[in-house]
Each structure stands twice: as C-alpha cells, then as structure tokens.
Give the backbone structure.
Amino acid sequence: MRLLEHEAKQILRARGFEIPRGALVRTADEIDYALATVPLPAMVKAQVPVGGRGKAGAVVQVADSTAARETIARLLGSSVRGYPVEGVLLEASLGVQREFYVGFTYDPGGKMALLLASAAGGVDVEARAQAVDERMVQRAADVRRELYGFEGREVAAGLGLEGRDLLGFASTLQRGWDSFLALDCTLLEINPLVLTAEGRFVVADVHLEVDDDALFRQDRLEKSYGIPRREASGRFPTALERQAAEIDALDHRGVAGRVIEFDGDLGLLIGGGGASLTAFDAIRRHGGRPANYSEVGGNPSVRKVAALTRLLLSQPRVARLAVIMNVVSNTRVDLVARGVITGILEAGRDPAATLAVFRVPGSWEEEGIKVLRRYGVRFSDRRVSIDEAARLAVAASRA
Amino acid sequence: MAILVDEGTRIIIQGITGREAAAAARDSLEYGARVVAGVTPGKGGTEVYGVPVFDAVRAALAAHPADAAVIAVPAPAAREAALEALENGLPLVVLLTERIPRRDVVAILARARELDARVVGPNCLGIISPGRSRAGIVGGRAADIGKAYRRGPVGVMSRSGGMTTEIANLLTQHGIGQSTCVSVGGDPIIGSTFVDLMPLFEQDQETRAVVIFGEPGGGAEEALADYIATRRPRLPVVAYIAGRFADEMPGVRFGHAGTIVEGERGSTRGKIAALRQAGVLVAEDFSDIVPLARRCLGAVDP
C-alpha cells in the first residue's frame, strides 16, 4: 500500500525526521489557512499515490500567493496519471546545499533487505548518478536488528561526507532503517534528502510503501494517523472491475475475481493465477477476443462463482463464456460447475448454448461431470490441454 | 532417486490441527508419505488421522525424529513456526502459508542460511516425488495425485502451484513421468528459486530433463538463464512462460503478488529471450512442452 507524500511525511516527522513546513489543502476554503502558515516561495504538490508527478506538471513552484491560489485550485479536482487529486501539499521551499538519495528496499535476488544511498539525489537518480559519476552505495541490512551507528557512518563516508554532515547523515540512515522495519515497508525512498544551507537534513520528498501482507499488524496507520487502507491497483479500475472486486469480497472462501476488462466477446472464467495467464495467452493465440481476464481459485463459494458468471454475462458484448482452469486439487470441480450453471441460469441464458468450453479437471470431477450433464454441457477432461481447450472455446465462440 | 523428498523422508506438519492441514496429513499418508508427527501448541496429546500431535517441535522430534517440516499455520504465526523448525535442526522446511509479511520471510531465510537449511516457499503447495512421497498439499487427494503424477525422468519447477499439477498431468498423459515436482511459491522472495534447485536436479541420476513454469515479474527466469549460460549444466531445460499478453498492459497488476511489469524488466518477452539465448527450449503453446521434453529425453545419453 503506497502512502501519499503528506501521510508518509507526517509519520516520519513523528519518528524524528525533519520535514519542510507545509499545509495540506483539500478544499478551496483551506487555501487561506495554508497561505497564512506556509511562507513563500513554496512548492505546490498534488497528492497522488504515483510517481512522476513532476513530469506530469503536478509539482509546481509558486513565488506569490496569486500563483499559489491559481495552481492549487487548478490541481485540486484534476487527475494525475489516472488518479484524482484529492489533496495538495503547499510546502515551503528549502535552501538546498546538497541533495541525497536514501532508499531501503528488498532484493528478491539476494533474498535480503538493502540500503541504498547516493550523493546525486533528485529526479532520475540513476541517470544523474552516472552523469556526475556519483556512486550508488549499496549495502545489505539485517532485518533482525537495528542499523549500527558505525554502519551508517561507513555509508556516509562512502559518499564523501565528513564531520557534522557525516554524523547527521548516519543518524538519518539509522532512523530510516528503524522506520522501514517498524512500518513493515517494502520500500522507503527519501529522494531528495536535502542538506540545507543551515546544515540540517530534511526529507524533501518520500515514497513509502507498506507491505500489504503486514497491514494486519499496522493498524496504527489508521488509528494513530488516520490513514485508511487503500487497495493496490496499477491503474484506476473500471466499473466492471469494481463490481467484480465487490463480488470477490462477498466472502472469504477462495477467489473469484481479479477481473481486468477487455473489449472482446468471449467471457473468461479462468484460474488459478498461473493457469489464468496460460489460458488467456492461449485464447489470444487462437484468435479469440477476451471480454475479460479473471482469476478463480482456492475453492471459491458457489455464490461467488455464480455472481461473477452473472456479472460477466451482464455485458451485452459477451456472447459466450469459456471456463478453463488447471487440474485442480484444492478447488472442487463440482462446485465450480454449480456456480457457473447457477450464474448462467440466473442471467436468463442456456448453459449449453452459453458455455464455449468447460475444462476444469481435478478433484470431484466425477461429480462435476454429473452437474454439467444435466444441462447438456460437455465436460473437457484432463486429456484436453489448456491450449486445446482455448482452441475449442474460440472455435465455439465463432460458430 | 528424486530430490528433497523420497520414500525415506520423515515429515512433521506444523499447524496439523487446522482443517486444510489435517486433510493434507490424511491425503499424504494415503499416498505413502511418512507423516510421523504434527505440532499445534496447546493440542499436544491429541491425534489427527492417527498422527500424534505435540505442543512443540522439540517434543515431536524427541519422540519421532524427522527430516522435514511442512508448515501450514496462519501468516502472523509463520515466522515463529519456521524458526522453531529451523532452531530444532530440521534441514528442510516447506512453507505453504501465503501472505507472510516480507520482513518475516527475509528473517526466516536469513536464519535458514545461517543454519545451512533449505526452505521451499512461502506461498507454495509443496514438493512431490511421484510414487514415493509428498510434502505439502500439491496434487490434492491421493486418488487425484495418482491421475496426474507418475514416476519418471522429468523434474518440474513451477512458480504457480496449480500449474505444477497441470504440467505433471500433461506429461503423464503422454507417458512421460516425473522425478520430483516443486511448487516453488508465488512470492517475490522465496527460499528456493529455480537456480537454487537446479544443482539438486543435476545431482539426481534419475532426472534427465527439467521443465519450468514461469510468469511475469521478478528475475527468476533471467537468473536461471544466466546460470545455464555460465555453468552449462548437463540437464536440458524446457520452459513455458505465461503472461505474454501481460507485456502489452504495463502498469496492471497480475498474479500472485500483484506483480507489476514495467518495461522490459520482468516481462515475459524478456524472460523468453533470455532463456532462449541460454539454450533453453521455450514452448510457444503450453502443450509444446511434450515434444520438447521428448526431444530432451531422446538427446541425453543414458
């Protein structure tokens, strides 16, 4: 879960970091207060959970209050890369002496956590690091303990810092590591970490992501900071996708959802994860036009499967439905069959005419075959491969 | 010979009194696996399908020495369960649990590394050596396992649990058996990657080819390509990498960990190119795995 910049800064300040003077503006009538508390010149920064704001014109320097008002009003209610701007941060500009990059993340290849630091902070960190020949110092960090002072000082020295600056940078690193662990971050990037003209280290911008799988033990986010749980999504979901997510949330039994909308005429009820990708690829390879992607697995309830089936068929462009899953072990074939048949009937359609293919071999398949037979639906068994099933589905959808 | 688990492997199941774990114990026993004990703190003294339950791993091992632990406990308890197995000297831990916090996974793997123990998973279905043993839930009930899996010369590694059985089934349908199949897990950070397991398959006389199932996201396939290109292992490798269409949709989350593919990094296209470059036979259609596997088996000198 990615925090908004102002949320992350609020938490970091509580954890001992320095952040710039700023005020969050959510509505037009909050502008006056913000201008009264934040000295100009200032930055106006749209608060959206996505990077590249600067390039999108969502981070603007303003020199006077007229410019500030105009910019804030313009950004509020606009959208940045698909995300609606619900808040804008008015933040005092800093007197910058130097800019650094500090990052904490996990390295899947090394199966460990990493600390990264560079004396070339700012936009396009990697490119600039190369351009000015500034190294990105990288160091493994043990999640089971704190970062020692000497480790922080070694990194600082590696960046060419000395004296008070070295000490200040090192303690920033230690504080950053503590926060990375305490907040169960998957990423904590302070970029830039500004060394001001007065010699203070200030978090000018931060990208903080909390591990979705650790939210169960991070309830202080909501309780102490008022930060609500946000669903992860690469882009804004469509209406169909939102409805599918609601269906999947009907109960905790398995998964019948993760729908991504496409514009074809062949509805897909596919699963599990790897098999969904495989089936979708196969449908495309045989010239099929998917109406959607989905993931069905973990023995979802008949109710959810039926509701998802109904939802897919509610799209006028969807003529046929292909049900393709891998050989299932944890999911019951008969329950998937029941769910699909129920959904088709509830949508007022005929199962045999609507199903382009039903290929779900595996546990309880004998019972599943019986359910389908009652409605005249052919069962493609384990001798039919996933791509063969896709071929059959596409052929049927053309007939 | 098989890797990781064979007919001699003695298994304990942590979290055995949970519904799924209990069923898994029953099904594994029926399949012929040596499930010798279970652990659920507070339930010591009871039994599950004839398997004695203990309050602690230490007590279980004192009564029933074992070689592997299968862990099926809820995510918040997973780190401690894994550490309990590791600290008590178990050399193999199969972590089925999904949605374990990343920090916990890394802590587990760090300790395992220190103790020279192997972890498979998390978020995996386990390991099966057909006809010999099964650690986990891969393949489901005994009768279902028998339909999909048979003993033979192909090792299987898959990032998708369900596709482990799908690949085995495909091979079995065409008369090609499997030595050991490993569901390595769907998370970004796992205990045993393709590269970690290749040397084990290479040392196994019975394995004469390896089939892998890959997906978008991460660098597991690229790392394998690198390994093959530099080490030139004796074993030919066949790969199917799903998610070609995902390449055309940047920024959309798919699959297990909601992997986002940005640009070339982690893309299916990139993985396929890297693997082909290293000499791996990449199946275009899923069922192409069969002729490609046959080619590998035919080409290897007995």
